[in-house]
Design a protein that fits this description.
mainly alpha
């Protein structure tokens, strides 16, 4: 009795499996990017909290000892927090611009 030979199936480049795999890959990349963004945000927040904590201790020193060094340290903390805030807002605005680009393909004239 003759045996049937099976031929390998033709691979369709637009197959549903490949599209699904591409979507999964895109989803993973988006999650990794979001995790990186979240990690950066957490790092910046932690740094700001540490600077603010340092400023708080210096305020205590200024009020109890009238220390000139404490006053200068408070002023430095304020400058650093201002710089950090400006950097984070600039980064936020840039990311917002990228994520909210209008797509004109689907727009119809009014």
């Amino acid at each position: 009795m003759a045996q049937k030979t099976t031929r390998p199936a033709k691979i369709d480049p637009d197959s549903a499996e490949e599209k699904s795999a591409a979507k999964k890959k895109d989803g993973k990349l988006a999650r990794l990017k979001a995790n990186g963004t979240q990690a950066e945000l957490m790092r910046m927040t932690l740094k700001a909290c540490l600077i603010a904590r340092d400023a708080t201790f210096n305020v205590q020193d200024l009020l109890t000892n009238s220390s000139r060094m404490a006053f200068l340290a408070i002023r430095d903390c304020e400058k650093e927090l201002t710089r950090s805030s400006a950097r984070s807002m600039s980064s936020f605005r840039a990311r917002l611009r990228v994520s909210t680009r209008p797509e004109h393909d689907n727009c119809s004239p009014a």
